[in-house]
Design a protein that fits this description.
Layout lengths: L1 H13 L7 H5 L20 E2 L12 E8 L11 E3 L2 E5 L3 E5 L6 E6 L6 H4 L10 E3 L2 E5 L4 E6 L5 E6 L14 E3 L2 E4 L11 E5 L6 E6 L30 E3 L4 E5 L21 E5 L6 E6 L15 E7 L2 E9 L4 E6 L5 E6 L7 E4 L6 E3 L1 H7 L8 E3 L13 E3 L4 E7 L3 E3 L29 E6 L6 E7 L7 E4 L3 E5 L4 E6 L5 E6 L9 E5 L2 E8 L4 H5 L13 E7 L5
Length: 563
């Protein structure tokens, strides 16, 4: 019976396209006709060498096609483009389409339990897929991993990663590294235990699981004060990691501790919450770690994209990792060892720490934070900057290796923090603090698109916004930075000055991730539109009422006169 099932499975796989191969995935950052990885390359730089669209002609961009994605959920995904077919994921479907016309080729719906939308934190969304050897891999909101045939959209295998009723969900794109499908998990607000999983791409067999809170008998186990605190200690892994094939190391960020209130059983450093992990893709072995926010009380997830780059530091070329952390500091780490090389503010206001000690790698707590760490129940709240949404939230930045600048949508508001006594309840957020909203800036600017110097954190230029942007950023060799705005405008900026070059209203707020690609000598730019996400859920911003929902995919190119 097992032999027959295996033969059937292999026969099913053989009917699908052969690509992409490992070689295709490795060269994604330099190819212009395909987009085979989340991030436009294993390095997550989201930089393209294309330059037909440039700062001198971007004003001539026009829409080529628009495709309805038939959903009203937030659209935070990034398209893939492989062998002439574009693939996009939504919360409730996976779609294949013709990239030149926008015509749908197939659509595979996902049936979800109705109550999953009430449990999942924070919002019902999906950020993308991975592709390998004829199969497309994605997660579901109810914490399953699915493999679909790229030609047909038919399901090849499905595996359950966790129980959504326990607070787990899956929103990030998988990563293919050294022939392994690696997935993360969300749910740190529910007193869950974070982990990464490695899956066999052909069969769906689980190869390994790496928990991200250390057990008592593991290295780092003594960083948890309570004997069982690690079992509900958080450390979610809900955004996609990067990969260095030459080092054979995957770099993945981990999120907040559970509960947010650290004064009980969570006293201690709490490895490996709010950290960057370097792991072996074949085994899940942790090679090194760096912890951004030990014993984090403020929800300063360390999951933000870990961008791989090469920088000259003190006259020496270094292979590094860049991260604009939720805690407001821009970090530069050595890629081979995790050594801290730089950590500087990239936002205007930080009051939880005075800085980061380069020798120890530890934050220098302010008196406010010292008090928070030692006060189980607070009579009055304190105003913490940045807020729980961070100096930058999930929306990925771009790094331009030519200019050496990072481009990121940043946030500019704080929040009142008050520790309370709380017990864990099923399907209920487990925070141990009173969440009552945000503290808005006096100048009214709740966010900025910034050009940031990685080693100093200094802002080269910035574009203010009353509505913060929650879209990813794309930069190109043409000197153009693309991003979407919450009000629905897709816009292009001069990468050297921040001058706005062009904008187009897509009809709903943009929280998607733009990509660019080339076909038949023409450069195209594609982005998903569809308002929603964590800011929409928790901000109470009345201006969002005038931004209609509705997922759609847009593609643009330069206007060309027909002669």
């Amino acid at each position: 019976m097992r032999a027959a099932l295996l033969i059937t499975l292999l026969a099913s796989i053989s009917t699908h396209a052969a690509g992409p191969t490992e070689a295709d995935l490795r060269k994604d950052a330099t190819t212009v006709g395909d987009i085979t990885t989340y991030g436009g390359g294993y390095d997550l730089q989201r930089y393209s060498p294309l330059k037909e669209i440039n700062r001198s002609n971007a004003s001539r961009l026009v829409p080529v096609w628009n495709l309805s994605l038939a959903n009203n959920y937030p659209q935070e995904g990034q398209p893939l483009l492989i062998d002439g077919v574009m693939y996009e994921t939504t919360t409730d479907a996976t779609v294949a389409l013709d990239p030149l016309t926008g015509k749908q080729i197939w659509r595979t719906p996902i049936t979800l339990p109705q109550d999953v939308h009430a449990v999942a934190c924070c919002g019902s969304h999906n950020r993308g897929a991975a592709a390998y050897q004829g199969l497309l891999f994605r997660g579901t909101l109810d914490a399953h991993v699915i493999a679909l045939g790229m030609k047909t959209g038919k399901e090849v295998w499905r595996q359950k990663a966790a129980n959504y009723l326990d607070g787990y969900s899956m929103t990030g794109a998988p990563l293919i590294a050294n022939g392994v499908v690696i997935t993360g998990i969300a749910g740190g607000e529910y007193g869950t235990r974070g982990f990464l999983d490695g899956w066999d791409p052909a069969t769906g067999k689980k190869l390994w699981r790496r928990y991200t809170t250390a057990a008592p008998d593991e290295p780092g186990g003594d960083s948890w004060a309570g004997p069982e605190a690690y079992l509900e200690g958080g450390g979610p892994t809900w955004l996609t990691g990067s990969y260095d094939p030459d080092m054979d190391l995957v770099f993945w960020g981990t999120g907040n501790g559970g509960p947010w209130n650290p004064t009980g059983a969570r006293k201690g450093q709490n490895l490996y919450i709010c950290s960057a992990l370097a792991i072996r893709p074949k085994t899940g072995e942790i090679v090194w770690h760096y912890q951004f926010s030990p014993n984090d009380p403020y929800d300063y997830d360390g999951v933000n994209e870990l961008v791989l780059a090469e920088l000259t530091i003190e006259g020496k070329e270094r292979k590094v990792i860049l991260q604009a952390n939720r805690n407001g500091f821009f970090y530069v780490l050595d890629r081979a060892t995790g050594e801290l090389l730089a950590a500087n503010p990239f936002v205007d206001k930080i009051n939880w720490a005075e800085g980061i000690d380069l020798e120890s790698g530890l934050p220098i707590d302010t008196e406010m934070t010292k008090m928070v760490r030692n006060t189980p129940e607070m009579d009055e709240p304190v105003d913490v900057w940045p807020s729980a949404l961070g100096g930058k939230n999930w929306m990925p930045m771009s790094y331009d290796p030519e200019s050496g600048l990072a481009f990121a949508n940043t946030l500019n508001f704080g929040y009142p923090y008050r520790s309370i006594s709380e017990t864990k309840e099923p399907k209920t957020l487990y925070l141990g603090m009173e969440f009552v909203g945000f503290t808005w800036p006096e100048n009214g600017m709740r966010g900025y698109l910034k050009a940031i110097e990685p080693l100093t954190g200094k802002t080269r230029w910035q574009v203010p916004s009353e509505l913060p942007n929650f879209s990813g950023v794309l930069s190109t060799a043409g000197g153009v930075v693309f991003t979407g705005r919450m009000d629905g405008e897709f816009a292009a900026y001069d990468s050297a000055t921040g001058e706005k070059l062009w904008g187009f209203q897509t009809g709903s707020g943009i929280t998607g991730i733009p990509v660019t690609w080339e076909r038949n000598g023409t450069q195209y730019v594609t982005v998903a539109s569809g308002v929603g996400g964590v800011y929409s859920m928790f901000s109470g911003d009345e201006r969002l009422q005038n931004i209609p929902p509705g997922g759609s995919l847009w593609t643009f190119a330069l206007f060309k006169d027909k002669k």
